[in-house]
Amino acid sequence: MLLIECGSVWTHASLLGMAEGHCRLLARADAPTTGMSPLADVTIGIRNVLTQLEYITGRRLFFQGAILSPEVETGDGVDGVALLTSVGGPLRIMAVGPGLDVWGASLRRAFASLATEIMLPPGMNPEAYPLFRSSGSAPSATPHVMLLLGPGPDALASPEARDALERAAQFVNSLLTSESGVRSGPMLLFLGSMEEQAIIRRHLAGRDIVAVEPPPPAQAGQLASVLAQIYEHTNLTPLPAYHYARAWVSTPPLSATTGLGRVVRFLSQRYNMNVLAVNVGASSTLAVGATAQGNLFVTQAHQLGVRQGAGALARRAGLSAIARWLPFEMTEDYLQEAIIQRMLHPRMLPITPAELAVDHALAHESLRLIVEQGASLGGVGELPHVDVIIGTGGILANAPRPGQAALMMLDAVQPRGVTSLVIDAAQVMTALGGASLLDRMAAADAVDMDAVQIQLGTCISAVGAPPQGEPAVRAVLQYADGHRHTTEVLPGSIELLPLGMGQHARLLLYPSPGVDVGMGPGQPAQAGQPIEGGRLGVIIDARGRPLELPADPEQRLARLRQWQAAMGI
Question: What is the CATH number of domain 91-236?
Answer without folding.
Answer: 3.40.50.2300
